[in-house]
Amino acid sequence: MLVVIKKDYEEVSREAARIVAGAVRSNSQIVLGLATGSTPLGLYKELIALHRAGDLDFSQATSFNLDEYLGLPAFHPQSFHFFMKQNFFSHVNFPSGNVHIPDGTISRNYDEYCAQYEQSIKAHGGIDLQILGIGRNGHVGFNEPTSSLASRTRLKALSRETVEDNRHSFSNDSEVPKCAITMGIGTILDSRRVLLLASGRSKAAAVAKAIEGIIDEDAAYSLTQRDYYRHVLEMTQIFTPERLS
Ligand code: F6R
Fold first, then answer.
1. DSSP state, 153?
2. Which of 2, 100, 180, 203 could join 219 in a cystine, given CB atoms 3.0 to 4.6 angstroms apart?
3. Which protein residues touch ligand 1 with a CB less than 6 Å away?
4. pTM for this structure?
Protein backbone atom coordinates (compact mmCIF):
# COMPACT_ATOMS: atom_id res chain seq x y z
CA MET A 1 0.00 0.00 0.00
CA LEU A 2 1.21 3.48 -0.81
CA VAL A 3 0.27 6.68 0.99
CA VAL A 4 0.50 9.76 -1.22
CA ILE A 5 0.18 13.08 0.60
CA LYS A 6 -0.56 16.06 -1.61
CA LYS A 7 -0.71 19.76 -0.71
CA ASP A 8 -4.42 20.27 -1.16
CA TYR A 9 -7.63 19.08 -2.78
CA GLU A 10 -6.64 20.27 -6.26
CA GLU A 11 -3.40 18.30 -6.15
CA VAL A 12 -5.19 15.21 -4.81
CA SER A 13 -7.66 15.43 -7.69
CA ARG A 14 -4.96 15.93 -10.32
CA GLU A 15 -2.87 13.02 -9.06
CA ALA A 16 -5.92 10.75 -8.85
CA ALA A 17 -6.90 11.75 -12.40
CA ARG A 18 -3.40 11.02 -13.63
CA ILE A 19 -3.60 7.50 -12.20
CA VAL A 20 -7.14 6.80 -13.42
CA ALA A 21 -6.40 8.20 -16.90
CA GLY A 22 -3.25 6.08 -17.11
CA ALA A 23 -5.22 2.98 -16.17
CA VAL A 24 -7.92 3.70 -18.78
CA ARG A 25 -5.31 4.33 -21.48
CA SER A 26 -3.49 1.10 -20.74
CA ASN A 27 -6.71 -0.94 -20.67
CA SER A 28 -9.48 0.49 -22.82
CA GLN A 29 -11.88 -2.19 -21.54
CA ILE A 30 -11.22 -1.29 -17.94
CA VAL A 31 -13.81 -1.99 -15.26
CA LEU A 32 -13.90 1.00 -12.92
CA GLY A 33 -15.45 1.06 -9.47
CA LEU A 34 -16.83 4.56 -8.91
CA ALA A 35 -17.78 6.61 -5.87
CA THR A 36 -19.96 9.66 -5.33
CA GLY A 37 -19.67 12.39 -2.70
CA SER A 38 -17.70 15.62 -2.64
CA THR A 39 -14.27 13.96 -2.62
CA PRO A 40 -14.14 12.54 -6.18
CA LEU A 41 -15.75 15.64 -7.76
CA GLY A 42 -12.34 17.16 -8.56
CA LEU A 43 -11.19 13.85 -10.03
CA TYR A 44 -14.26 13.69 -12.28
CA LYS A 45 -13.66 17.30 -13.40
CA GLU A 46 -10.08 16.46 -14.32
CA LEU A 47 -11.16 13.33 -16.22
CA ILE A 48 -13.81 15.31 -18.09
CA ALA A 49 -11.18 17.91 -19.05
CA LEU A 50 -8.88 15.18 -20.35
CA HIS A 51 -11.74 13.67 -22.32
CA ARG A 52 -12.68 17.05 -23.83
CA ALA A 53 -9.08 17.63 -24.79
CA GLY A 54 -9.30 14.39 -26.79
CA ASP A 55 -6.93 12.65 -24.41
CA LEU A 56 -9.21 10.10 -22.81
CA ASP A 57 -11.66 7.65 -24.29
CA PHE A 58 -14.22 5.78 -22.20
CA SER A 59 -16.03 4.16 -25.13
CA GLN A 60 -15.10 0.63 -24.08
CA ALA A 61 -14.99 1.11 -20.33
CA THR A 62 -17.43 -0.35 -17.81
CA SER A 63 -18.31 0.97 -14.38
CA PHE A 64 -19.86 -0.25 -11.17
CA ASN A 65 -20.83 2.31 -8.58
CA LEU A 66 -20.32 1.56 -4.94
CA ASP A 67 -23.72 2.41 -3.62
CA GLU A 68 -27.15 4.03 -3.84
CA TYR A 69 -29.64 5.25 -1.27
CA LEU A 70 -32.61 3.01 -0.77
CA GLY A 71 -35.84 4.72 -1.78
CA LEU A 72 -34.41 7.27 -4.19
CA PRO A 73 -35.25 6.95 -7.88
CA ALA A 74 -32.60 7.81 -10.47
CA PHE A 75 -34.15 11.22 -11.17
CA HIS A 76 -34.03 12.29 -7.50
CA PRO A 77 -31.44 15.10 -7.23
CA GLN A 78 -29.86 13.45 -4.17
CA SER A 79 -29.63 10.01 -5.74
CA PHE A 80 -26.24 8.71 -6.73
CA HIS A 81 -27.62 7.97 -10.21
CA PHE A 82 -28.34 11.67 -10.58
CA PHE A 83 -24.97 12.64 -9.12
CA MET A 84 -23.04 10.43 -11.54
CA LYS A 85 -24.97 11.67 -14.54
CA GLN A 86 -24.56 15.34 -13.58
CA ASN A 87 -20.95 15.18 -12.54
CA PHE A 88 -19.46 12.64 -14.89
CA PHE A 89 -21.38 10.47 -17.31
CA SER A 90 -23.16 13.25 -19.22
CA HIS A 91 -19.78 14.87 -19.96
CA VAL A 92 -17.83 11.87 -21.25
CA ASN A 93 -18.35 9.10 -23.82
CA PHE A 94 -19.10 6.34 -21.32
CA PRO A 95 -21.65 4.00 -22.97
CA SER A 96 -24.81 4.09 -20.82
CA GLY A 97 -25.20 0.32 -21.20
CA ASN A 98 -21.86 -0.17 -19.47
CA VAL A 99 -22.82 1.84 -16.40
CA HIS A 100 -23.98 -0.05 -13.32
CA ILE A 101 -25.35 1.66 -10.23
CA PRO A 102 -27.41 -0.17 -7.60
CA ASP A 103 -31.14 0.47 -8.03
CA GLY A 104 -32.46 2.43 -5.06
CA THR A 105 -36.07 1.73 -5.98
CA ILE A 106 -36.15 -1.99 -5.32
CA SER A 107 -38.60 -2.83 -2.58
CA ARG A 108 -38.21 -6.57 -2.07
CA ASN A 109 -35.85 -9.52 -2.68
CA TYR A 110 -32.94 -7.34 -1.61
CA ASP A 111 -30.51 -10.21 -1.13
CA GLU A 112 -31.31 -11.59 -4.55
CA TYR A 113 -30.81 -8.19 -6.17
CA CYS A 114 -27.49 -7.67 -4.37
CA ALA A 115 -26.29 -11.15 -5.35
CA GLN A 116 -27.05 -10.24 -8.98
CA TYR A 117 -24.97 -7.06 -8.65
CA GLU A 118 -22.07 -9.15 -7.35
CA GLN A 119 -22.58 -11.63 -10.16
CA SER A 120 -22.53 -8.87 -12.73
CA ILE A 121 -19.19 -7.57 -11.40
CA LYS A 122 -17.80 -11.10 -11.66
CA ALA A 123 -19.21 -11.58 -15.16
CA HIS A 124 -17.31 -8.44 -16.25
CA GLY A 125 -14.08 -9.91 -14.93
CA GLY A 126 -14.00 -8.01 -11.63
CA ILE A 127 -13.12 -4.41 -10.87
CA ASP A 128 -9.74 -3.25 -12.15
CA LEU A 129 -9.60 0.06 -10.31
CA GLN A 130 -11.89 1.08 -7.46
CA ILE A 131 -12.18 4.75 -6.45
CA LEU A 132 -13.11 5.36 -2.82
CA GLY A 133 -13.84 8.30 -0.57
CA ILE A 134 -14.05 7.89 3.18
CA GLY A 135 -16.73 9.07 5.58
CA ARG A 136 -15.97 10.97 8.80
CA ASN A 137 -16.70 7.79 10.72
CA GLY A 138 -14.42 5.78 8.42
CA HIS A 139 -17.09 4.25 6.21
CA VAL A 140 -16.16 3.29 2.66
CA GLY A 141 -19.07 2.80 0.34
CA PHE A 142 -21.77 2.59 2.99
CA ASN A 143 -19.90 -0.01 4.97
CA GLU A 144 -20.38 1.61 8.31
CA PRO A 145 -18.02 0.82 11.20
CA THR A 146 -18.41 -2.84 12.29
CA SER A 147 -18.97 -3.99 8.71
CA SER A 148 -17.32 -7.34 8.13
CA LEU A 149 -14.20 -7.47 5.99
CA ALA A 150 -15.89 -10.32 4.15
CA SER A 151 -19.11 -8.38 3.48
CA ARG A 152 -20.57 -8.37 -0.03
CA THR A 153 -23.11 -6.12 -1.75
CA ARG A 154 -26.10 -5.81 0.55
CA LEU A 155 -28.74 -3.61 2.06
CA LYS A 156 -27.14 -1.66 4.89
CA ALA A 157 -28.68 0.52 7.61
CA LEU A 158 -26.89 3.88 7.73
CA SER A 159 -25.30 5.02 10.99
CA ARG A 160 -26.75 7.97 12.87
CA GLU A 161 -23.66 10.00 11.97
CA THR A 162 -24.11 9.34 8.25
CA VAL A 163 -27.84 10.16 8.40
CA GLU A 164 -26.92 13.42 10.20
CA ASP A 165 -24.30 14.26 7.59
CA ASN A 166 -26.88 13.80 4.84
CA ARG A 167 -29.71 15.71 6.51
CA HIS A 168 -28.76 19.10 5.06
CA SER A 169 -29.21 17.78 1.51
CA PHE A 170 -32.91 16.96 1.99
CA SER A 171 -35.79 19.37 2.43
CA ASN A 172 -37.48 17.34 5.17
CA ASP A 173 -36.34 14.75 7.68
CA SER A 174 -38.67 12.01 6.47
CA GLU A 175 -36.90 12.06 3.08
CA VAL A 176 -33.43 11.43 4.51
CA PRO A 177 -32.50 7.84 3.57
CA LYS A 178 -31.96 5.45 6.44
CA CYS A 179 -30.60 2.60 4.33
CA ALA A 180 -28.47 2.10 1.25
CA ILE A 181 -27.43 -0.67 -1.07
CA THR A 182 -23.65 -0.88 -0.96
CA MET A 183 -20.87 -3.04 -2.22
CA GLY A 184 -19.29 -4.84 0.73
CA ILE A 185 -15.74 -4.53 2.03
CA GLY A 186 -15.11 -7.98 0.54
CA THR A 187 -16.36 -6.75 -2.84
CA ILE A 188 -14.06 -3.71 -2.65
CA LEU A 189 -11.07 -5.79 -1.57
CA ASP A 190 -11.54 -8.06 -4.57
CA SER A 191 -10.67 -5.09 -6.81
CA ARG A 192 -7.26 -5.34 -8.44
CA ARG A 193 -6.42 -1.84 -7.30
CA VAL A 194 -8.03 0.60 -4.88
CA LEU A 195 -7.54 4.38 -4.88
CA LEU A 196 -8.81 5.88 -1.65
CA LEU A 197 -9.02 9.68 -1.67
CA ALA A 198 -9.40 11.95 1.33
CA SER A 199 -9.27 15.69 1.74
CA GLY A 200 -9.87 18.12 4.58
CA ARG A 201 -9.34 18.13 8.36
CA SER A 202 -12.74 16.55 9.01
CA LYS A 203 -11.32 13.32 7.55
CA ALA A 204 -8.11 13.32 9.60
CA ALA A 205 -9.36 10.97 12.32
CA ALA A 206 -10.83 8.48 9.85
CA VAL A 207 -7.70 8.61 7.71
CA ALA A 208 -5.45 8.08 10.74
CA LYS A 209 -7.32 4.86 11.46
CA ALA A 210 -7.79 3.61 7.92
CA ILE A 211 -4.70 5.30 6.47
CA GLU A 212 -3.50 4.73 2.91
CA GLY A 213 -4.61 6.56 -0.17
CA ILE A 214 -4.12 9.91 -1.85
CA ILE A 215 -4.80 12.56 0.74
CA ASP A 216 -4.09 16.22 1.28
CA GLU A 217 -2.06 17.76 4.12
CA ASP A 218 -5.18 18.47 6.17
CA ALA A 219 -6.54 14.93 5.97
CA ALA A 220 -3.03 13.66 6.77
CA TYR A 221 -2.90 15.80 9.93
CA SER A 222 -3.24 12.91 12.38
CA LEU A 223 -0.92 10.47 10.67
CA THR A 224 2.08 9.67 12.85
CA GLN A 225 4.26 8.22 10.09
CA ARG A 226 4.13 11.03 7.53
CA ASP A 227 7.92 11.16 7.05
CA TYR A 228 8.05 7.43 6.51
CA TYR A 229 5.25 7.61 3.91
CA ARG A 230 7.17 10.34 2.08
CA HIS A 231 10.29 8.20 2.16
CA VAL A 232 8.38 5.16 0.81
CA LEU A 233 6.98 7.33 -1.96
CA GLU A 234 10.43 8.64 -2.91
CA MET A 235 11.83 5.11 -3.00
CA THR A 236 8.85 3.95 -5.06
CA GLN A 237 9.44 6.77 -7.55
CA ILE A 238 13.04 5.61 -7.91
CA PHE A 239 12.73 1.82 -7.86
CA THR A 240 9.18 0.86 -8.87
CA PRO A 241 7.64 3.92 -10.60
CA GLU A 242 5.17 1.64 -12.42
CA ARG A 243 3.28 1.33 -9.13
CA LEU A 244 2.47 5.01 -9.44
CA SER A 245 1.39 5.00 -13.06
C1 F6R B 1 -19.99 7.51 -1.95
C2 F6R B 1 -19.66 6.71 -0.79
C3 F6R B 1 -19.28 7.29 0.53
C4 F6R B 1 -18.44 8.56 0.43
C5 F6R B 1 -18.13 9.09 1.82
C6 F6R B 1 -17.36 10.39 1.77
O7 F6R B 1 -20.32 6.71 -3.06
O8 F6R B 1 -19.72 5.53 -0.90
O9 F6R B 1 -18.55 6.32 1.25
O10 F6R B 1 -17.25 8.28 -0.25
O11 F6R B 1 -19.32 9.31 2.51
O12 F6R B 1 -18.18 11.38 1.23
P13 F6R B 1 -17.58 12.80 0.85
O14 F6R B 1 -16.63 12.59 -0.24
O15 F6R B 1 -18.78 13.59 0.42
O16 F6R B 1 -16.94 13.33 2.09
1. S
2. 203
3. 35-39, 66-67, 133-135, 139-142
4. 0.91
